[in-house]
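Researcher: Batch entry, complex prediction.
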Amino acid sequence: MDDEAARAEGFDAAIGQGNHQWAVVHRMLRELTGPNGTITRVEIQFRSPNIKGQVLTARGRVTSRADDSLALDIWTEDQHGTTLGVGTASVTLPS
Amino acid sequence: MTDTYLTDVVRQAAGRECSRAVSYPIEASDIRKWALAAYWPERPPQFLIDAEVAPEDFDPFAWGPASYESLLPDDDGSVIVRHGINERALGFPEWKFRAGLNGGMNCTYGVRMHVGDVITDTKSCGEYTERQGRNGLMLITQSISTWTNQRGELVKRTINSGIRF
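Model: Structure tokens for the complex:
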């Protein structure tokens, strides 16, 4: 989608795929697990599209831990702190 | 104005397998290219540059499948739906929507993908629901993508949700 088509739909600029937010979330989780940990589940609801010019940041908060397994709340936000996507994830840390 | 999108045909389609795609064997350079794109403009971690194991979100279909087949007998091939569900071949009504949005993704991962693996993606129709929103009656769609490797092991199962109004 280009800027013109996006504006016709009411957006400020071209919108990106949700997969972009998905990739940023997985980068964040991978930084947590390191190369030998695993991401076991990710769920995210897209509340707002990421649009051209935004700077995406993924964040997470550990909500529970059982041995090497962590459960997290996750979200993505733009450079103004506006939440774009929210969800949960589970990862396993290396033993 | 549509009273409901959920005809009997739509309701009964839940769980029906719609298409199957098979990837080319994964190469180390595929994983490296994926990492370079996902981490751009930063450099990916070295373990993804030299990887024998793909990151969980790696997509072996990013460069197109080695083969693709529809599993729907009514699919005449006139609509290519590689990433979703061929609703026309399922006999769904020809809805007219003003907008369609990616509502979200829910993915459970199984075994990791390795160099040399061949992945099969089987797409099935999920549950369709509807609800009233600011933009009128919204259709909430689900497509389910199940990836297995050449040994039949589950790689991941993803539920993709869409919103149309």
